[in-house]
Structures are given as C-alpha cells and as structure tokens.
Amino acid sequence: MINKRVASVAEALQGARDGMTFMLGGFGLCGIPENSIAELVRLGIRDLTCISNNAGVDDFGLGLLLQKHQIKKMISSYVGENDEFERQMLSGELEVELTPQGTLAEKCRAAQAGIPAFFTPAGYGTEVAEGKETREFNGKMYVMEEAFRADFSIVKAWKGDEAGNLIFKGTARNFNPCMCGAAKITVAEVEELVPAGELDPNQVHIPGIYVQRIFQGKRYEKRIEQRTVRKR
Q1: Which Pfam family is one of this chain's hits (predicted)?
Q2: In Å, how far are 7, 32, 52, 165 from 37, measured between CA atoms?
Q3: Which fold has domain 9-116+148-216?
Q4: Pairing state of beta strands 140-146 and 117-120?
Q5: Residues 58-79: pLDDT tens digits?
Q6: Contact call for residues 5 and 136 (beta carbons, < 8 A)
Q7: Concatenated DSSP letters for 210-224?
Q8: How far apart are CA 146 and CA 119, in angstroms?
Q9: What stretch of H or E contains 152?
Q10: What is d(CA 59, CA 70) in angstroms, rounded to the nearest whole number?
Q11: Which residues pair with 142 in a beta bridge?
C-alpha cells in the first residue's frame, strides 16, 4: 500500500507556484484547510485563482490571502461575509466569477469523475449562462457547464490514514469530498493521522486513490462564522 504521508504542510504544498489554480474545501469557516491556507500566505505566491464556496472572513480563511493580495480570481458561490473581498471586487482589483452553489459542487464532482462537462438548468436565462452553450431536453432549457481544471485541491478531514483514506466529521463533509481527486494534486490535512489499515473501511468517506499527499495539521481554531446565542 502506498504511503502518502508527508512530514509537513511545506512538503505537502511543494510545487505550488504563482498563477496556479487551487480548490479549497470548506463551507463558511467549517472544514477549511487552515494549515494549508496559512502556508500559502507564508509562501507569498501570487496571481492565484481560488475555487471555494466562499472567501472566508476578513481575518481568517481565504480572507488572509485576500489581505496579502495573493488572489487574482475568486470562483465562489457566496461571498457576503468578507468586507475586503467586497472592496477588492468593487474596485476591480479582484476578478470574481459567481457560480450557483449546486453548479459549483457539480463542477468539482465532474472534475473528480473525469467528466469534461454537464448540463444544468441552474442559471439559464441569467448572466450565468452568457457565452455558454444551451440546449433543450424534454422541453426544458439547460446550460452547459465545464468541469473545473485545477492544479491543487486542498481539503481538510477529521481523520485519515497514511494511505490517504479520509473520514469527515459533521458538516465539514461539505465541499471537501467532491474536491478530492478533482485536481492534478490533492492534499489532505487531517486532525488525526493513523497508520494504514486502522480505519474501518465502512466509515471511510473518500478512498485514498483520490489523495496524493496527507499530513496531520496543528492548532486548529475552528472559528464560528456567525455566533448566535440566546439572551440570558
């Protein structure tokens, strides 16, 4: 069995360069690859295209890359919690491609499955469909969407083994699974890394064949994006 464990986040992201396209798992601040994002900030690589459901918040998640102006283009579904994102978008500093959430997920899954394109009704008749092929099926119009093409897919899991098998916990099982195997290199950071063969195969969400590099992360903050509490 191939051992895909690497010693550090620096080794996991070896080969990352300016101008590359990165998929990053997570939903809001849930299940985001915190260690890998911090390493991208440290590396200082620029002109990145980032594919993620959202852009974090001003001082956490992908917001850290935005602060350093490392992202050239953001492909997202929801971006409403980041003031710096809004400022860069409105000023023209940041190119933004807004994508319906289900379409975003399916463009990842299609890339994972080796499917070059698919048809979806989402976005027909709107700006989303401009410049894209449309076709009628059974009396309903559909838009053709192409699968994503990315250099790195970076995901965060609760537990993994040295063969790359992954288990996600709770709602962190969001965009992470469909991004595994959807790029040239998939990097998984996990809270707990165990020897190959120790995970119950019935509990594995993503098999190791979709993962090229895996490492154990450290010091996860797991912030809450919108903390709502009951008044005393």
Answers
A1: CoA_trans
A2: 17, 9, 12, 21
A3: Glutaconate Coenzyme A-transferase (3.40.1080)
A4: antiparallel
A5: 888 899 999 999 999 999 998 7
A6: no
A7: G-SEEEE--------
A8: 9
A9: strand 152-161
A10: 14
A11: 135
